[in-house]
Amino acid sequence: MKFTASQIAGILDGEIIGNPDVEVSKLSKIEEGTEGSLTFLANPKYTSYIYSTKASITIVNKTFDAEHNISTTLILVEDAYKSFSKLLEYYNQVKLNKTGIEQPVYIADSATYGADHYIGAFAYIGENVSIGENVKIYPNVYIGANSKIDDNVTIFPGTQIQSETVIGKNCIIHSGCVIGADGFGFSPDQDGHYQKVPQTGNVILGNSVEIGAGTTIDRATLGSTTIKDGVKLDNQIQIAHNVEIGEDTVIAAQTGIAGSTKIGKNCIIGGQVGIVGHITIGDRVKIQAQSGIGRNVKDDEVLQGSPALSYGDFNKSYVHFKNLPKLVDRIDQLEKK
């Protein structure tokens, strides 16, 4: 897709200095700009690059005052960073605005779907699936029987939505996710062999949930694994059966949450955190990366370490951890005396 400086200025309500007809078809960093690319200048540290960049168009603040000759066409706006972000959002909307049904696909006769849909090649839509309006289902997506997908949902290639899954409005599910696979439920018999416990529940995603690539969310043994409105999950997270995550909680990559744990709303959980099963974590909790959580956590706690301590206690303790060799030497010298 190509855009002229005039078109971009119209979207951003900006002022052009330079060639209004110059075209761009790609984005670049200002220091790596090439002909035909669009970039921006917001951080003063990068000001020197505006005089050497090969980018065809650069978005700058209206307060920018050039000290040397500039070859790039400028678009002056109130806030270059926000305007560039707005442009990225617009670009994504245009790029992802696919409609229609590609071939080959399989859509069960009992499945239904709303207007402005897109179903990519090799997608599979099972029996009694209900799909809302403006839903984008990219190639090689599997949607199991009796699942329900509400309006304005985007599911990227290679994702599997297992049967009975419910997905709310405005959700984004990135490539390679598995939503609704069996939970890790086994029971030992009298001979010590593990027998599978049937996993008969489902997964429910609220509205405006975003799930990163490769993340897995297991169906409940009974009832539902529930991800509530506004939750944002990073890549490669494991969420076990019957977990509940409260509104607007964000979780970074490679975190694992064991079965039946309940996490409150507005929590921030760092990468590679491990959380045991059957505990409750309160609202507005912050957990630092690589922490291990093995107990209930109250509202507003900030935790770090494994097993996790309060953030303040961890930092105080760390002072002693790193001084242990010196303390051991001192004790050895005292014992010799």
TrEMBL record:
SUPFAM superfamilies: Trimeric LpxA-like enzymes. The active site is at residue 241. Its EC number is 2.3.1.191. Residues 21-89 form the UDP-3-O-[3-hydroxymyristoyl] glucosamine N-acyltransferase non-repeat region domain. This is UDP-3-O-acylglucosamine N-acyltransferase. It comes from the Bacteria. Catalyzes the N-acylation of UDP-3-O-acylglucosamine using 3-hydroxyacyl-ACP as the acyl donor. Is involved in the biosynthesis of lipid A, a phosphorylated glycolipid that anchors the lipopolysaccharide to the outer membrane of the cell. GO terms for cellular component: membrane. GO terms for biological process: lipid A biosynthetic process. Gene3D superfamilies: Hexapeptide repeat proteins, MurE/MurF, N-terminal domain. It catalyses: a UDP-3-O-[(3R)-3-hydroxyacyl]-alpha-D-glucosamine + a (3R)-hydroxyacyl-[ACP] = a UDP-2-N,3-O-bis[(3R)-3-hydroxyacyl]-alpha-D-glucosamine + holo-[ACP] + H(+). Pathway: Bacterial outer membrane biogenesis; LPS lipid A biosynthesis. Homotrimer. One of its GO terms (molecular function) is N-acyltransferase activity. Pfam families: Hexapep, LpxD. Belongs to the transferase hexapeptide repeat family. LpxD subfamily. Keywords: Acyltransferase, Lipid A biosynthesis, Lipid biosynthesis, Lipid metabolism, Repeat, Transferase.
